[in-house]
Amino acid sequence: MKKTSVRVIRVIIAIITSLALIAAFVLLGIVSMPQWLVDSASGSDATAYHIVQQRLQSYCPARMTLPDSTDWGDSDYRASAGDLSTSARFAAFGSAYTASVTPFDGNGTASQLKSSTSVSNRNALTYTDQDGTARLLSATLLKAGAGSGQAGTVASRASNGDLRGISAATCAVPSVSHSFLLPASSTGTSHQLMLANPSSKTASVSVQIYGTKSSGTIGLSTSGTVTVPANGEATMNLSAAAGGQDGLYVSVNSSSASVGAVVRTVVIDGLTPKGSDFAMPAGKAATSNLIPSLAEGDHAFVYLYGEHDAKVSLSWVTEDGLVTIDTHQVEGQRVTVLDIGSVPAKAHGVLASSDANLVAGVKAVRSGNDGQEDFALLSAVTPEESSAAVLPEGVTSTLTLANTSSAQTDAQITFIADNGETKSEQTVTLKANSAATVTGEGLAALVSDADRKVAWAVRLTGADLGDGVAGLSSLAPTALAASEETVHSTPDASLVH
Q: Which UniProt keyword terms apply here (predicted)?
């Protein structure tokens, strides 16, 4: 009997203990543990993770084409591309150990950029051809840092036809947002927004446009949404969507994937070609915008846009410093266009200084015979520690370097030969707020600017277009600095409940 009682008591105790344990576990799951029971977090176990973008991609647009290539009407009055020829060149620098260009439509094989046999750290992987199709430039880096990256250029030139002159574009980095400052959308002008989606999912892109006639967004005559297929391209006719403006500010935003974006601009006045060029994405709004790549005899138009009203002062950037042009008031959310006339001797750029952030650009125009013109669409340039530009074949390349500071500074230029080896090096000394020019040579130019004071660009002229044919374009440099981020993590036992 006693044994039975003991056994019953043990069973009851076991049941009570089990219930207590279950209750304790449930309580721990729903109630925070008292701080006096928690070990204090120790910083000694903190870990830093360095995240580096080692795979680079850029969209290289197809060569310049006419907006309407249909063969209709009298042959004497049809639009013609003339004797258009194209040069496409690509380079990868620094720690890039492999790079290639691939047809964007997926048809065709990738072309590998080739390396030099020299061991100099200034060498590059390079590739040149005359293919005018859209392509994807890709490179893989061993490590991030100033001096590592990629750049590419597609340039077209013609001595006759409706695309007489020079047009050039750099390869654009895909992003979820882009903006453009464009010249007039009047009759005879075509602005084609070209969008490229290198991702594996469809991108939906919204477009907002601001003009010169009034403040705020323009009610578009066409849809403001563009669907860009995966690994594909799409276009939007901006001049049809927002015609009759003296200038446009275009905001492009993708909701689902990064896209490459470039605007192809062609102007024809009746039967007279008035020029063509590519507009590349504008930089961030700033209170100081320096636009290089002008020369004596250019006719210059300044384009300004800001979210808020601003007072802006314009100055020529000359070989001897700044020369004041004028001061203007800019209305917020409205494009302002200023005709600042002919560029004087020794002037190589324009500085726009404002009391509120603005986006600024310049249209530089050269005149040929019989009313023919060509123009370059210039953007403000931000100084970088290391940047590069690929120089097209068949044209004359001139580097314009401008000192954005009020003190003398130096910039180191390295020219890369066609085979990827260093061709020559030189140091350029720039006086305060002044500019200088250097004739380009080889396949690419690299500029090292440790103090980040020098804004520069490449002016394209010549091209043996013949007497009386104006030819002009410009290339902004590409920053050689891969995206990188450091993430810190520290164990914290108080996060455990």
A: Membrane, Transmembrane, Transmembrane helix
User: CB-hemisphere CA count at 13 Å for 193?
Assistant: 34
Q: Where are the alpha helices (DSSP H) in 368-439?
A: none
Bridge partners, residue 227, by sequence:
204
Long-range CB pairs of 27-30, under 8 A, 24+ apart, other chains included: 28/497, 29/497
Q: Find tokens 């800019």 and name the residue.
A: 330
Length of the chain: 497
Whether 120 contacts 177, CB under 8 Å: no
Determine the straight-line distance between the first and last CA of the chain, rounded to whole angstroms: 47
Helix, strand, coil % over all residues of the chain, rounded to 5? 10, 50, 40
CB 291 within 8 A of CB 362: yes
How crowded is residue 38: how many other Cβ atoms within 10 Å of its Cβ?
Answer: 15
Instruction: Give the global pTM.
Output: 0.86
Place of tokens 């060569």: 63
Give φ, ψ of 16 to 5 degrees.
-60, -45
Instruction: Report whether 122 contacts 413 (CB < 8 A).
Output: no
* Count of C-beta atoms within a 10 Å radius of residue 101: 23
pLDDT digits (tens, 9 = 90+) for 235-269: 999 999 999 999 999 999 999 899 999 999 999 99
Give 132-166 pLDDT, tens digit per residue. 999 999 999 988 788 999 999 999 999 999 999 99
CA distances from 192 to 242, 265, 444 (A): 12, 6, 28
Look up residue 240 and give its two tokens.
Answer: 């049809």
Q: Can you point out the beta strands (E) in 79-123?
A: 85-93, 96-103, 111-112
Q: pLDDT tens across 23-36, in order?
A: 666 555 565 555 54
Strands, DSSP E only, in 346-385? 347-367, 373-379
pLDDT, position 497? 46
In the chain, the percentage of residues whose pLDDT exceeds 70 is 84
Helix (H) / strand (E) element for 141: namely strand 135-141
**Cα 132 from Cα 437, distance rounded (Å):** 29
For residue range 287-322, list pLDDT tens digits in order.
999 999 999 999 999 999 999 999 999 999 999 999
Cβ proximity of 364 and 297 under 8 Å:
no
Q: Which residue reads 């046999």 in tokens?
A: 117
Say if residues 110 and 136 touch (Cβ distance below 8 Å): no
Q: What angle do CA 124, 129, 130 make, to 5 degrees?
A: 145
Query: Edge-to-edge strand order for the sheet containing 124-129?
Result: 124-129, 85-93, 149-158, 165-170
Residue 381 C-alpha from the chain's centroid:
10
